[in-house]
Amino acid sequence: MLNIALPxxxxxxxxxxxxxxxxxxxRDIYLDNRQLIFENEATGVRYxxxxxxxxxxxxxxxxADIGIVGKDILLExxxxxxxxxxxxxxxxxxxxxxxxxxxEDIGRRLRxxxxxxxxxxxxxxxxNREIEIIKLNGSIELAPILGLSDVIVDIVESGKTLQENNxxxxxxxxxxxxxxxxxxxxxxxxxxxxxxMLAMLADKLEK
Length: 207
Prior knowledge:
Blueprint: E1 2-7, H1 9-21, E2 37-40, E3 45-50, H2 55-60, E4 66-70, H3 71-77, E5 82-86, E6 92-99, E7 110-114, H4 117-126, E8 131-135, H5 142-145, E9 151-156, H6 160-164, E10 167-176, E11 178-182, H7 184-189, H8 191-206
Parallel strand pairs: 1-3, 1-4, 7-8, 7-9
Antiparallel strand pairs: 2-3, 4-11, 5-11, 6-9, 6-10
């Protein structure tokens, strides 16, 4: 069996559709139950449904052979896995955002609210800007509105949430999309199975 870690949620829906389209049926995922593991003996795969931020962990530590995960998770976690293919789904951006009237005071340390601590540190280190990180797990947009931070570093898709809260994108740090990843050991021992799926995905994306 090829063990595959799949993300729950919105990205997951796009991933299931993509896998179905290349013959790796995962329709049982849509059954109305709380099951987290699904097997398809015909194709020789076993799916695990996990939180998107945990996909890379399952793959890195060998609980799953392969997985599909957002590039933001890979950048933030620094997971030691093979990144084999950009699937071009779940596209968005990691951006710096602030209030519409924001003006930066370069004379003092910048307060940055984010859940993407490593991405934020890496970006600001690259431009030699001294920062103070304020780690938040949700509702990041509130931080500059309430004066908790000067700016935020967060995922931006359409930008509508920012607009509704009188915020704007100040800088785009990196574009994000879903990536097909593999455990390094599993790729040695199950390379044929993994490469077969990889080739089918690549072929599908080219059409």
